From TrEMBL:
InterPro entries: UppP
Keyword list, A-Z: Antibiotic resistance, Cell membrane, Cell shape, Cell wall biogenesis/degradation, Hydrolase, Membrane, Peptidoglycan synthesis, Transmembrane, Transmembrane helix
Any one annotated GO CC term: plasma membrane
Membrane topology recorded in Swiss-Prot or TrEMBL: Multi-pass membrane protein
Compartment(s) of residence: Cell membrane
Any further remark recorded for this protein: Bacitracin is thought to be involved in the inhibition of peptidoglycan synthesis by sequestering undecaprenyl diphosphate, thereby reducing the pool of lipid carrier available.
Transmembrane segments: 49-70, 82-101, 107-129, 183-205, 217-238, 250-267
Species whose genome carries this gene: Sulfitobacter geojensis
Taxonomy, superkingdom: Bacteria
Protein name (database record): Undecaprenyl-diphosphatase
Gene it is expressed from: uppP
Protein task: Catalyzes the dephosphorylation of undecaprenyl diphosphate (UPP). Confers resistance to bacitracin.
UniProt-listed Enzyme Commission number(s): 3.6.1.27
Amino acid sequence: MDQSTTLVAAFLGLLEGLTEFIPVSSTGHLLLAGHFLGFESAGRTFEVVIQLGAVLAILTIYATRLWAVFSTAPHDPASRRFILSVLVAFMPAVVIGVLAHDFIKTVLFETPVLIAVMLIVGGVILLLVERVAPETKHDDAMDFPLSMALKIGFIQCLAMIPGTSRSGSTIVGALMLGASKRAAAEFSFFLSMPTMAGAFAYDLYKNRDVLDANAMGEIAVGFVFAFIAAVLVVKWLLGYVSKHGYALFGWWRIIVGGVALAALMAGY
């Protein structure tokens, strides 16, 4: 792996970590950046696998809280209900992700115009939800009803269209189902752990034959930078959205998507 490839992998890892947990579509940003930088990973595995760095960031930040949940689960119904709610929300992504994996990677990941359009559409939706979200009924991400968790799980599957945003779809879904802004973000964090770990494992398995030493080197560099950036973002995000909401990210999506679409239309 040469120096220029290392720098691109580091930049994309940083971009992944900065955008994974805010509702702007990390995958959309990675694919568009890779397109304009001329970077294409083997089997498009880099863009999926480095997300594990962001997952480990969440595990690091919430380690104490998660340990409390799992250690008390045998005798605490609330802990068991929380674990079950995350698993219930995760299941739709398992089924649809496995069935649609090849189509997503070979068609949707290779359509930058679609990604740019989805960034814009998602930005508009985020701005609208800021205005029309119903009154808050659920202020604790660890106490969502199972039916609500399942609905969020199905909504999360929209993010299999790159540019939609996994965090964006889950946050919007939670807000429309009555979650507070902070609880919506936190449930999105918790749901990201099994979702992204599952995507990592399945994608690595599907593309095991095309990953060489260079590909693994790119992934390692991206992974480290994604982890560092994600730690910083998660610590900042909850305080920000509690005070200011999600409008900033809606406008960001519209601007990035608009600029990318204009560049693509111009032949870049």
